[in-house]
Amino acid sequence: MANFTTADWAKAQLKLDGSFQGNELRFRSPEVYKLYLKNTSFMFPDYQAVKTDPARVIEMNYAVRTSRALGAAISHDHSGAQGDSAVLVPTWAAHTDKFVSTVKEANNSIYSLEEMHQTKMVNSIANFAEGMETVASAYTFANRSGVNVATANGTFDGTDDVFKISKGANGDQAISITKVAMDANAYQGTPYDVVCDSVSWTLFLFQAAQGAANNTNTSFQFGGVNFILDPKLDAAAAGLVTPITLGFWIVVPQGSVGALPWIPIQNRQGLDTKEATYSNMINPIDGTTLAIHSYETRVDGTSLGGQLQDVSIETELFLYQALAHTPLSTATETPLLAFGLIA
């Protein structure tokens, strides 16, 4: 029930501790989201200084690859082609979670006001972990590459943007084939993070354990590859034009994705006015800085678990976040290559 009403002092009350309480407050660690966050500092070193408002557009310049065939003759009057550049324009979106307390809500409760507030903060942090993981998973899936030049032991489906591998013929070699495909797309020598649906995760975990002492040695494929389980890809892969249910994964070359978390300067520096408080906190799950905005209002708190003559404390945690992948000049091409096993 809401407002901690089960903990009222109407009868003898005790509090569950340890794992009996912890399991109710559990959440999945946002590993896909962390994949984006780990590249922030060296990919986007200066954006905090120039982004002063949520609506302010930031352009980030990068050099464009100019590819051409080599000539076969030397000339004294040659003329060459110039280089070029382009811009990446990140898009920031707001992500929020909010809760309310009253100053008297703990008066008739087994919980103290501090314990109630802490529980609400824990739930907000959990909501951010799960919410931002959903955002990161959806971004990774939506931005899979529409270009894949690989042809060995598979076929690229340009409708679903997935390189498809026959499970019956080549399922035991799926990661080797993936590496060859990445090589064909000029990502040779690059370590990979592989974001897996539940089926491919289970398969690769099994194959990685099949060492030289086994009849079938498949473990040799897995060097230089880091696997991340993303159950949200199960439904995404099943929702393709031609559904994939035998295993789906997206390869992310390390250093090719990033995140740009941002909060207003008032929250970064801290500001307490007569109307509101602007502050921040470090999210202990992923290390991002969450903005906090709070204010007080006179209220009849009986519907909130408080009392008639009460004060509500409204609190909102928020973050502006832009996810990005390294830009490529070829239309629909990204560094995020999707693979799937088919019958």
Through-space gap between termini? 48 Å
Give me the side-by-side strand order of the main sheet: 4-5-15-8-6-7
Low-confidence stretches: none
Rg computed from alpha carbons, rounded to a whole number of angstroms: 26 Å
Order of helices and strands: HHHHEEEHEEHHEHEHEEHEEEEEE
| Percentage of residues assigned to helices | 25-40%
Content of β-strand = 15-25%
Bulk shape: flat
Backbone structural class: alpha+beta
Number of helices: 10
Q: Quote the average pLDDT.
A: 90
Largest sheet: 6 strands, mixed
Count of beta strands: 15
Structure explained in plain terms:
The protein is an alpha+beta fold. Among the domains are: 92-142 and 271-321, no CATH class; 150-259 and 325-342. It contains ten helices and 15 strands. The strands form four sheets. It has a six-stranded mixed beta sheet with strand order 4-5-15-8-6-7, sandwiched between helices. A five-stranded antiparallel beta sheet has the order 3-13-12-11-10. The protein is flat and about 90 Å long. The protein starts with 18 loop residues before the first helix and ends with a strand. The model has no long low-confidence stretch (mean pLDDT 90).
